Structures are given as structure tokens and as C-alpha cells.
Amino acid sequence: MIIGSRRVSTTAAPRHSVIHRPLRAALAATLATALSTLLACASLLASLPAHAAHAIAQYGEPKYPAGFAHFDYVNPDAPKGGTLVLANPSRLTSFDKFNPFTLRGNAAPGLELMFESLAVGSADEVATVYGLLADDIVVAPDGLSVTFHINPRARFSNGDPVTADDVKFSLDTLKSPRAAPQYASIFSGIKRAVVVDPRTVRFEFVERNRELPLLAGSMPVFSRKWGMKPDGSRIPFDQLAFEKPIGSGPYLIESYDNGRNIAFKRDPNYWGAELPVRVGMNNFDRIVYKLYADNVARLEAFKAGEYDALVEYIARNWVRRDVGKKFDSGELIKRVFPQHNGTGMQGFILNTRRPLFQDVRVRRALDLALDFQWLNRQLFFNQYTRIDSYFANTEWQAKGLPSPGELALLEPFRGQLDPAVFGALPKQPDTDPPGSLRANLLQARDLLQQAGWTYRDGALRNDKGEPFRFEILDDSGSAGAMEPIVATFTRNLQKLGITATFRAADYAVYQKRLDAFDFDVTTIRMPDVQVPGQEQVNRFGSKAADTPGSDNAIGVKSPAVDAVLNALVHAQTREQLSDAAHALDRLLMHGYYVVPHWYSGTHRVAFKRGLAWPKTLPLYYGAEGWITSMWWYEAPDASTPAAGKVPNKAPKS
């Protein structure tokens, strides 16, 4: 999906089911993950002369020149109209607020439709961004600031013009303690926003960092009047609940019901419909989300015609369950769409804050116990490839032996690192002949013995006699899909004397436990990036490990990783960024912090007859956001779903 200047590849590495971390809030989490091509790519911006521009290209010139008509991957003549009905886009099964930028509570799905940013990325370039709210961008020659001029036509949904004061207010609010803590981390390199005049705002940086100009451009902008009472007093930002956001995006909240359904209508006065970066987009009059309690209910509801499009992440469902009379008649259609996103990392996340997982030999042993080849044959219909890198399917994936540039980053920490880090990359366990699960488990047993774990009295025990046992946590809405996978994994662990129990918790409880890092093992997907940058600091930096709600669920605290992250975000050239990314990948893979899962190079989508999409596909995209932003109904008629208005009722406490 495209949110402001952030390209959010929510399904960039299609997963077997529910293996991404639950969205802390619909837009809050996507911002942290969406630094993909937009945020991270700024790491390579060369020193730019001060000049106004419609776009900034990371390499060479932007694909689209000033005055371009529209992106190549949209249909500029797409008809407008109809109602698109969708189901839960994440594990979210209910919501209790409209503020996606705070930590507590669950934000409604679709709120990204209401917010925009100063610049927006294109979906067919890795490293170019174009003005959205801003019509000119000026990067200072010294790289210590960037200035945006706001388009005079830009308007909030209440009719007010978007001003530099609103931009400054948005930054100050997001960096404040009342917003989710990851925003303070993400925008830590921005010292302040300075109002130059009503339509000009300058972001000043703590230090020269090639990523920061685009990071500033990616920031969601909202009105200062959001949460303001008639008497002029203000509701504290972290207490905003069902106060409707005042943003500049193409959609407005039309109705909602009991925290389970929400409908958006296209703003008839949307200011940006004719912008080149918006032509051919936002084609539905209404977009409705219906939230179902679990995957089974969601699938059956789709087959019953309750909503219009289903992005299928479960291979078993795609082959065996996404079938029936409506598929046979053509009323429901299945289609596989290619994509070129990186995979991201997904898998069983081992919380290294727990003493049980602090020995790398133990973590490696657990990796050896997962039989991917068996799972792929028996459960996945051979539709997946094992993940072998945090940047798989991209040029940033480490390969072979460390390069001279990598060694220069790693050498200062040679005494602290496993010597294996300076050798070949580890290969994921394989059980296809001549490999076998038995051989892998024997190797795992040896590693566990080296770490002080031996089998006695019916269990694997340490020198204190304590048994090796842990809990795999998931949310109840996704437990059904993960259960056969976890059962296979735990059965293999039992052969080592390890007891792993599977616990499914209510989504709200699950999310709260993850935010507090109160878990042993869970399943998480770290969304892909086309070019790594600041988001990696929030995922693997030592400071983030101690910040509740951060993306460092693993708890990585490594001086070597911190040094490489610093080199990555301060890279001045493509070569420097490549060396830092490869070194980071090498450190993380040798750390065995995750038991990696799998990925696919396609999006599987089932949808109702009548929906259509552009002939030219984007290169880097998430299926859900692509559907909401660029699809349309060819001929809205009586068969077009009409959700009807949903009464405005807040969830019951």
C-alpha cells in the first residue's frame, strides 16, 4: 500500500499465515515497517545542491519528469464508483480507537486512507520519491536540513489549508511521550521543524545523514485541530479514541459499529485527486472493513459473498479450501500476481531476554529441529522457499565470505564475535537426501550438550536439574493456521527432550505481551525493505531492545550490531551501504535469533467477478494496499456488493 511517502509492502514476502507481528496500530506499525524503498533509500543520497525539485532520485534521475501525467502502473481512465468490502487486513479482530499513532489500544483498519505526507514513493523505482503535500523539495548543500514548500491547494478534510504549523505540530506530537515510542526512535535524527512561512517548513537534522530528508518527507501530517474541543481546550493525544482524525487523505470515516466494522467514503472535496501521484487511484466510492474472529470465519464469509477480495497467505487454503461452486461458476476468481519485493525475515522469534535463549548454541539447536522440507511437501504443496537471509531476494543479502568492506566493519569486534562470523554464511538445515532430520537432531543434541543441557529423568535438563521448556505464543485468531506447523516443530523438539507448549491468547492480550516483551517464542514477520536504513535500528539496535513497543522483539544487544547499524544509516555511497547491510545480515544470521520460515515470490488473490486492475503491475507492492488504491469495478451494478451504512456505535466497554 502507498501511505504518504511510505511504500508499505504489507505482503511483500507472502507468508504461510499470520507470521507477521500484529499491527500495534494500523498506521503506527506500518510506518516503522514502511521505511522500505522510501525511508531507507535516503541513505545513499549524494550531496545535493540547494534547488527546488518535484522529486528526489537516489540514483541518477527520477523515472518520471516534472509534469508527468501519472505513474505507469495505474489506469488513468479507471471508472470511479462502487463499494469495496474487505476483511481483517491483519490479526486485528476489533478496534477501540481512530488514533493509529499511540501505543495503547487497537486502531481501526483503513485509517491510512485518511493521512498523507509531504512526499510519496513510486512503486516501480527503488529510490525515488515525489512531492505529495509538498510541491517543492530543497535539500541543503550541507545535508543538515531539508525544506518543503506545501502545495497551496492542499486541504484537510475539514476544509482548512495544510500549513507549516500543522507539519511542525505533527512532528512535535509524534516525538512526544504521548505517541507510540517507536516514533521518537524513528524521528530521533530530526532535531526540529522550523516554520519558515505559512507554506514552508524546514526540518533540521542532528547530524548529516542521507536518509533524513526522505524520512522527514515520510512523516504523516494531521491537523492541529484534531482533538480540540469547542472551548479551545485539547484532548491529550494519547487519549484520543473515537474523535475522527482530521487528515488530508482521499477518504473519510462514514460509519462504524461496535469496533467490528468500519466504512470509509471518498471525500468529494479531496484536494489531490488530479495530482500525477494520485491519478488512477482511490477509485472506490466506499471501502468497508468487516472484522472476523478468526481465519476460518473469515474464509467462510468470503465464500458466502460477505466481502470482495481475499489475499490468501495459507497454501493449504489456496489449494484445498478456496474452492467451491462460486469458484466453479466464475463468481469468485483466483489469480496469482508476481511481485519483486524482498522477503523480509519471518519465523519463530526467540526472545533473548530469557536466560533460556541467551546461548547461541541453544538457538542454533532449535533451528536444526525445524524440518522445512517436510512442511513444504506435506502442508505447503511445495509453494515456498526457505528464508536464508534477513534481506533475501535483494542485493543486500550477504553471500560467501566477507568482503574487504565488511571486514573493515567487523574486525574491531573480532575478539567479541564467534570466529564463524568471518567465514562462510550458515546454511539452513536440509532434510532432503543425503540430509535427514535424524542427522540434524544429532547435531542439535551435541550443541545442547556443549551448552550444558543433558537428557536425564525423562527431560533435557541443565546442571540445576531444570527442564528445558518454553511457550510458543500466538493470538487466538491465527492459532488454527499455525497449529499444525507448531505441532510438527514441537514433536521434533520432544525428540531432544524439550517441551514446548503452544498458547493462543486473545489478540489484545497477545499484543500487550509482545509490546512488553513478555513471551518466550512467537511468530513474527519483519516486513521487507528494498533498501535497508533507519528501520533496522529500531529492529536490532540495543536502545530499542529496552524500549517497550519497539520492533526489537528479539532483544538484540550487540556492540558489533550497533556499530554496523551506525555505518548503515550514515553510508555515503552505495558501496558503503552494501558493505554495512551485508555485515548486518552476516551478524544476524550467525546469531541464530530466529528459526526462519519461508517465502513466495507471488501474491495469491481471490476476488469477486467485476473487480479489475491495471494491465501494468507495480514492482514493489503489498496486495491489500494495491487493491484498495488501484483496483476498480468495471461495471458497478446490482451485483456489486453494497455493505450499507453501519450505525455509529462505539465498542462496548
TrEMBL record:
Record key words, sorted: Signal
Molecular function as annotated in GO: peptide transmembrane transporter activity
CDD domains, sorted: MbnE-like
Alphabetical GO biological process terms: microcin transport; peptide transport
The protein's name: ABC transporter substrate-binding protein
Pfam families: SBP_bac_5
Keyword Signal: yes
Keyword Signal: yes
PANTHER family in alphabetical order: ABC TRANSPORTER PERIPLASMIC BINDING PROTEIN, PERIPLASMIC BINDING COMPONENT OF ABC TRANSPORTER
Solute-binding protein family domain mapped to chain residues: 129-543
Origin superkingdom: Bacteria
GO cellular component: ATP-binding cassette (ABC) transporter complex; outer membrane-bounded periplasmic space
